[in-house]
Design a protein that fits this description.
Number of helices: 7
Strand order of the largest sheet: 1-2-5-4
Number of strands: 9
Strand content: 15-25%
Structural class: alpha/beta
CATH topology of the largest domain: Arc Repressor Mutant, subunit A
Distance between the termini: 17 Å
CATH class of the largest domain: Mainly Alpha
Radius of gyration: 20 Å
Helix content: 25-40%
């Protein structure tokens, strides 16, 4: 199976100091933006605004440790979390390091017909950084067309989220959408993702 690759350029959550994107579960914990720890902010001469609350990011990796009884090396999961602040909204005295790249595309007429022809459609927003369907709000957010190197990838991303929205309780009431507290990577989540991918590839 080919691993998923984020097809849009701008947005997403990154570490402000390194500009490296946060990955795995952190993409669900953070909205798009540039984040830094309290220490990183202080060292750079910034200041967290009064009353602002931090966000949690998770770091984990495998550590190798020798078993004291048999001398064999074993892998142990190492997990810790950090508290971070979004520097553009929650911090004073720091400037964004992010470089924005945009692309000029003409809309694809046939794809626009599919998008606009969705009856009883959810609400749409077009903010950079995250493609997601919110079942409780019945709302899709898709990064704008200008954030995609290829127009086809924009529509593929949009249609993927549109398929998820068909599972809303007012439509097909699909288990993968209406079930509360679905965990990332579990069977219900995985089946719903498979449904979305199968539909847009047919």
């Amino acid at each position: 199976m080919v691993p998923w690759r984020k097809p849009w350029i701008n947005g997403g959550a990154v570490n402000w100091k390194t500009q490296k994107p946060y990955r795995v579960i952190n993409t669900f914990l953070l909205e798009a933006g540039e984040y830094a720890t309290f220490k990183q902010i202080q060292e750079a001469g910034g200041k967290v605004k009064k009353g602002e609350k931090s966000h949690i990011v998770v770091f984990w990796k495998w550590l190798e440790k020798e078993d004291e009884e048999n001398g064999k090396m074993e892998k142990i999961p190492y997990l810790r979390y950090f508290r971070v602040f979004e520097i553009n909204k929650q911090v004073e005295g720091l400037n964004s390091k992010r470089k924005h790249v945009t692309f000029n595309h003409d809309p694809i007429e046939k794809a626009e017909e599919v998008y606009k022809g969705y009856m009883n459609a959810p609400d749409y927003t077009f903010h950079s950084g995250k493609a997601v369907y919110y079942p409780t709000l019945d709302k899709i957010n898709c990064p704008p067309l200008k954030d995609f190197p290829k127009a086809e990838e924009y529509y593929s991303t949009m249609f993927h989220e549109m398929v998820h929205s068909t599972g809303h309780k007012s439509r097909l009431a699909r288990k993968g959408v209406i079930t509360e507290n679905v965990a990332f990577g579990d069977d219900v989540y995985s089946k719903e993702e498979l449904v979305a991918e199968m539909v847009i590839k047919t």
